[in-house]
Write a structure and sequence with these properties.
The protein is mainly alpha-helical. About 80% of the residues lie in helices and about 0% in strands.
Length: about 180
C-alpha cells in the first residue's frame, strides 16, 4: 500500500513539475514578446524624436537640405550640423542592429527604420558625404552599404522628399 502511494506521489510530483515547466515556458515567451515590443518602441521613439527635432529647427532643416543637395560645397557650420545629425541616425541604425542580433527586432522593421538614411545616402551629394564620413562603426557601414547595393525600388531623394530639394534651392515646394 505504501509503495502504491509512493508511486502515486511521484506521478503527481512529475505532473506538478511538468505544469511548472509549462508555466515557466509561457512566462518566458510572454516576457520575450514584451521585450521585443519595448525594444521596437524605444527605437521608433528615438527615431521619431530625431525627426521631430529636425522638423522644429529651421537651421537644422537648412543644413540637411544643403548637405543633401550640395555636399561638400556648403559652409563648415552646416557640414558639422549635418554630420552630427546624421550620426544620430546612424547610431539608431546601430542600436537597431544590436536589437536585431539579440532577436528583439525583425529585419523588416530595421529596414523601415533605416530607409530614411539609405534614401539620403542615395542622393549624389549624400553619397559623397557617405564616402567621406568618418563614422567608425563598421557594422553600420557594412549594413548601409548592403542596403545601398539592394536599394532598387526605394524612391530617390527627389521622389521621397521633394521639399528638401526645394528648400536647398530656396524654391517653393512642389505639390
Amino acid at each position: 500500500m505504501l509503495e502504491t502511494l509512493s508511486q502515486i506521489g511521484e506521478l503527481l510530483g512529475g505532473f506538478g513539475a511538468l505544469a511548472a515547466l509549462v508555466y515557466l515556458a509561457s512566462q518566458i515567451r510572454q516576457n520575450n514578446t514584451i521585450a521585443r515590443a519595448q525594444a521596437r518602441q524605444t527605437l521608433i521613439d528615438t527615431w521619431s524624436a530625431g525627426n521631430w527635432e529636425l522638423a522644429r529647427d529651421a537651421e537644422l532643416q537648412q543644413a540637411f537640405a544643403a548637405a543633401l543637395s550640395h555636399w561638400p560645397d556648403i559652409p563648415d557650420n552646416q557640414k558639422t550640423t549635418f554630420d552630427l545629425g546624421m550620426s544620430r541616425f546612424l547610431y539608431n541604425i546601430q542600436n537597431g542592429l544590436l536589437l536585431r542580433d539579440a532577436g528583439l527586432l525583425d529585419e523588416e522593421m530595421l529596414e523601415q527604420i533605416s530607409d530614411y538614411m539609405v534614401i539620403s545616402v542615395l542622393s549624389p551629394a549624400g553619397r559623397r558625404w557617405w564616402n567621406e564620413t568618418l563614422f567608425v562603426a563598421p557594422d553600420v557601414r557594412e549594413y548601409v552599404e548592403r542596403r545601398l547595393a539592394t536599394a532598387a525600388g526605394l524612391p530617390t531623394m527627389n521622389e521621397a522628399m521633394p521639399h528638401w530639394m526645394s528648400m536647398a534651392e530656396n524654391k517653393p515646394p512642389q505639390s
